[in-house]
Amino acid sequence: MIENRFFSIKKLIPENIKILAVSKNQDVSSIEKLYKLGHRDFGENYVQEMMNKYKKLPKDIHWHMIGKIQSNKLKYIIPFIHLIHTVQKLEEIQKINKIALKHNRIIDCLLQIKICNEKSKSGITKKEACNILENTIYKSMNNVKIIGVMGIASFQELTKVHNEFSYLRNLYNDYKKKYGHHVLSMGMSRDYNIAIKYESTILRLGTSIFGERIIL
Predict the structure, then answer these.
(1) Would you place residue 41 in the very low, low, confident or very high pLDDT band (cuts 50, 70, 90)?
(2) Structural domain of 76
(3) Taking the CA of residue 37 as centre, how many other CA atoms within 13 Å lie in the half-sphere pointing to its CB?
(4) Which one of 62, 77, 116, 130 is CB 3.0 to 4.6 Å from 154, fit for a cystine?
(5) Is position 215 within any domain?
(6) Which residues are CB-neighbours of 90 under 8 A, at least 6 positions away?
(7) In a domain, 131, yes or no
(8) How many C-beta atoms surround the C-beta of residue 69 within 10 A?
């Protein structure tokens, strides 16, 4: 049962670390079960799926976008999105800022950093991240704010995960001092125990809470 899995894993995670329940491909009833337990943070990969669930579920849920940004669909989620984890381009930030201005909102975002060599894992380099954070265009924006970094570690070789999480933590600590960042989003169901050791502030957990994903 979802409730049992949730309570079991919650016991293993320090209270200062936020659990983001990855609800991609999970039905509304599964999300409702966690909601009734008091959980409010859910992550989705696709705008349309998030929109469908947003319409059906309580409006105090904190929705997180953890999939690739679909620029042409940003306008649909900006009115209610809590945190975007996957920013990689200045152009994306500009669009978020423009739409957020129309809704009188300030949208929190994370820069997705590439920390492993797997082709399927996207992200930007340290240099590219610095270029964004130091860009005068970004600094002039009032309706978007980068508050931290996100990364996805190697899938096949867990021996590499320690080095990858260590790298992202060190980068986060640098940005924390320089820019006031306070969010380090790393760690998934397969490697969250390692992410905890490297001071992650948000764990993105899907299978360990919901079980194997279903197809809607």
Answers:
(1) very high
(2) 2-210
(3) 17
(4) 116
(5) no
(6) 131, 132, 135, 137, 138
(7) yes
(8) 23
Closest by CA position to 20, among listed 206, 145, 153: 206
- Interhelix angle 28-36/2-10, rounded to 10 degrees, is 50
Question: How many angstroms separate the CA atoms of 45 and 199, rounded?
Answer: 24
**Residue type at 9?**
I
HSE, side-chain direction, 13 A CA sphere, residue 171: 27
Per DSSP bridges, beta strands 18-22 and 202-205 are parallel
* C-beta of residue 49 within 8 angstroms of C-beta of residue 18: no
Distance, CA of 42 to CA of 134 (rounded, Å): 31
Q: How far is CA 112 from the centre of its chain?
A: 9
Total domains, the chain: 1
Q: What is the pLDDT of residue 213?
A: 61
- Average pLDDT of the segment spanning 40-53: 97
Distance in angstroms (rounded) separating the CA atoms of residues 148 and 141 = 17
Q: Give the CATH number for residue 168.
A: 3.20.20.10
Tell me: the pLDDT tens digits for 59-89?
A: 999 999 999 999 999 999 999 999 999 999 9
Tell me the helix, strand and coil percentages in the chain, rounded to 5. Answer: 45, 20, 40
Contact residues for 25 (Cβ-Cβ < 8 A; gap 6+): 49, 213, 214, 215, 216
Residue 130 tokens, joined: 């610095």
Lookup: tokens for 188? 């998934």
Rounded-to-integer distance, Cα 177 and Cα 165, Å: 18
Measured at the alpha carbon of residue 66, what is the angle toward residues 68 and 125, in degrees to the nearest 5? 65
